[in-house]
Amino acid sequence: MLELHPDYIVDESLNRRAVILPYSEWENIIEEMEELDDIRAYDKAKAEAEADETIPFEQAVKEIESGMVK
User: Fold this and answer.
1) What is the pLDDT of residue 69?
2) Where is 9: in which H helix or E strand?
C-alpha cells in the first residue's frame, strides 16, 4: 500500500480544490498505475484468448460422443 502525505489547497470556504504530493510519492502512483494498466491488458488478452478457444456446445457433445475427447 502506498503511503501518501498530501497537502491541500483550499478555497475561501475551506473546500479542498487541489492536492500537493511529494514528487517521489507521485512517481510511485504513476508506477502503480502503469502496473495496473499492464495487469488489465494481460487479463483482457487472456480472456480474449480463452474466448477464442471455446467451441459450440453441440460440437463438444459430438466430439465427446465420437471419442475425440476423453
Assistant:
1) 62
2) strand 7-10
